[in-house]
């Protein structure tokens, strides 16, 4: 088909030199695909290189402590990806003897691997004709073919997958898949795409009908909830602080944080002092309370916005066992906590 030939020709002249394009090792392809979910290449590349360096084989990753994996992942967000990555590595080693599944259907059995990732690995490593559909592909297809079906609807998922499967080069599925993802990432960008030098502009419905900014269509998600976090940063005279491990399921599961008091609104010094006096760790404790940031630090997640204040608790002793502030950077923490640690400069 002309579409696929035009696309792969463009790719041969414009593709970026990326390390995972120099291999068909499914472990490395899998690593890159998991890291690049919800992450741009320029941000994900250093993480990919760090994982390959620290865990050169799936056996190394499987044998690692989860806390070390989370620490290496720190800053990428969506920490369930890292937990799933580790769990799948253990499964590949324990159940499959270290050999990755060699087809789309079996790849889907890996934790954290969905249609897109399974298609990418199956096509790139095993030449299976399985079309990828990610954000870049949605954008390219919706604009070129003028498709109005919302991409985040079940019907949209079916329509775009079917179209991509129809268009894919049956002889070179790996090349086609990488080409269409690269085209969406660097040419048919979300904003300010390079339409004037696009090889598809003559047949692109969005370009010819001035609908570039309208496509792809996406159903608006529910408004993010506001939460108000107050972290207690204990500092004792002997240079220790308190970190707690989040055991409950959630985006920060198994990461460390300072003791947290969640409130219904942003707190002033006076109102928080009254609230804090009832907190178990502060009862019967002599301390000085210092507000680190007067304005809330707003940390935006996909489903909630965290309005955060850090309260420094200077005390002669800690109410429970603590950790040395010199070792605080050894713990895997959410980026919100990590940024505070760097700015506070313990």
Automatic annotation (TrEMBL):
<dbReference type="InterPro" id="IPR005760">
    <property type="entry name" value="A/G_AdeGlyc_MutY"/>
</dbReference>
<dbReference type="GO" id="GO:0032357">
    <property type="term" value="F:oxidized purine DNA binding"/>
</dbReference>
<dbReference type="GO" id="GO:0035485">
    <property type="term" value="F:adenine/guanine mispair binding"/>
</dbReference>
<comment type="similarity">
    <text>Belongs to the Nth/MutY family.</text>
</comment>
<dbReference type="InterPro" id="IPR011257">
    <property type="entry name" value="DNA_glycosylase"/>
</dbReference>
<keyword id="KW-0004">4Fe-4S</keyword>
<dbReference type="Pfam" id="PF14815">
    <property type="entry name" value="NUDIX_4"/>
</dbReference>
<dbReference type="GO" id="GO:0006284">
    <property type="term" value="P:base-excision repair"/>
</dbReference>
<keyword id="KW-0408">Iron</keyword>
<keyword id="KW-0411">Iron-sulfur</keyword>
<dbReference type="InterPro" id="IPR000445">
    <property type="entry name" value="HhH_motif"/>
</dbReference>
<keyword id="KW-0234">DNA repair</keyword>
<dbReference type="GO" id="GO:0034039">
    <property type="term" value="F:8-oxo-7,8-dihydroguanine DNA N-glycosylase activity"/>
</dbReference>
<dbReference type="InterPro" id="IPR023170">
    <property type="entry name" value="HhH_base_excis_C"/>
</dbReference>
<keyword id="KW-0378">Hydrolase</keyword>
<dbReference type="GO" id="GO:0006298">
    <property type="term" value="P:mismatch repair"/>
</dbReference>
<dbReference type="InterPro" id="IPR003265">
    <property type="entry name" value="HhH-GPD_domain"/>
</dbReference>
<feature type="domain" description="HhH-GPD">
    <location>
        <begin position="35"/>
        <end position="186"/>
    </location>
</feature>
<comment type="function">
    <text>Adenine glycosylase active on G-A mispairs. MutY also corrects error-prone DNA synthesis past GO lesions which are due to the oxidatively damaged form of guanine: 7,8-dihydro-8-oxoguanine (8-oxo-dGTP).</text>
</comment>
<keyword id="KW-0227">DNA damage</keyword>
<dbReference type="GO" id="GO:0051539">
    <property type="term" value="F:4 iron, 4 sulfur cluster binding"/>
</dbReference>
<keyword id="KW-0479">Metal-binding</keyword>
<dbReference type="Pfam" id="PF00730">
    <property type="entry name" value="HhH-GPD"/>
</dbReference>
<dbReference type="InterPro" id="IPR029119">
    <property type="entry name" value="MutY_C"/>
</dbReference>
<dbReference type="GO" id="GO:0000701">
    <property type="term" value="F:purine-specific mismatch base pair DNA N-glycosylase activity"/>
</dbReference>
<dbReference type="GO" id="GO:0046872">
    <property type="term" value="F:metal ion binding"/>
</dbReference>
<dbReference type="Pfam" id="PF00633">
    <property type="entry name" value="HHH"/>
</dbReference>
<protein>
    <recommendedName>
        <fullName>Adenine DNA glycosylase</fullName>
        <ecNumber>3.2.2.31</ecNumber>
    </recommendedName>
</protein>
<keyword id="KW-0326">Glycosidase</keyword>
<dbReference type="InterPro" id="IPR044298">
    <property type="entry name" value="MIG/MutY"/>
</dbReference>
<dbReference type="InterPro" id="IPR015797">
    <property type="entry name" value="NUDIX_hydrolase-like_dom_sf"/>
</dbReference>
């Amino acid at each position: 088909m002309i579409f696929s030939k035009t696309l792969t020709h463009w790719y041969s002249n414009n593709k970026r030199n990326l390390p995972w394009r120099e291999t068909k090792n499914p472990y490395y392809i899998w690593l890159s695909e998991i890291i690049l979910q919800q992450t741009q290449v320029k941000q994900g590349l250093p993480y990919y290189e760090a994982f390959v360096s620290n865990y050169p084989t799936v056996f190394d990753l499987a044998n690692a402590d989860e806390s070390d994996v989370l620490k290496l992942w720190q800053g990428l967000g969506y920490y369930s990806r890292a937990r799933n990555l580790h769990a799948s590595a253990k499964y590949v080693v324990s159940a499959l003897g270290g050999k990755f599944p060699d087809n789309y259907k079996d790849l889907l059995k890996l934790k954290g691997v969905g249609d897109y990732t399974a298609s990418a690995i199956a096509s790139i490593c095993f030449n299976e004709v399985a079309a990828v559909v990610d954000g870049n592909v949605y954008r390219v297809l919706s604009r070129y073919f003028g498709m109005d079906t919302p991409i985040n609807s079940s019907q949209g998922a079916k329509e775009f997958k079917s179209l991509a499967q129809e268009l894919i080069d049956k002889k070179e599925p790996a090349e086609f898949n990488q080409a269409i993802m690269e085209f969406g990432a660097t040419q048919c960008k979300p904003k300010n795409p390079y339409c004037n030098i696009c090889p598809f502009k003559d047949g692109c419905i969005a370009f010819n009908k001035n609908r570039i900014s309208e496509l792809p269509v996406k159903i608006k998600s529910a408004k993010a909830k506001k939460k108000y976090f107050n972290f207690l940063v204990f500092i004792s005279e002997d240079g220790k602080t308190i970190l707690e491990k989040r055991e409950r399921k959630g985006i920060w599961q198994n990461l460390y944080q300072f003791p947290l008091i969640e409130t219904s609104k942003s707190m002033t010094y006076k109102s928080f002092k009254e609230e804090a006096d009832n907190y178990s760790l502060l009862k019967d404790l002599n301390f000085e309370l210092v507000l680190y940031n007067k304005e809330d630090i707003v940390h935006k997640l996909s489903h909630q916005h965290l309005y955060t204040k850090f309260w420094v608790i200077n005390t002669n002793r800690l109410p429970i066992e603590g950790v040395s502030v010199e070792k605080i950077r050894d713990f895997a923490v959410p980026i919100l906590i990590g940024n505070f640690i760097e700015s506070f400069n313990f």
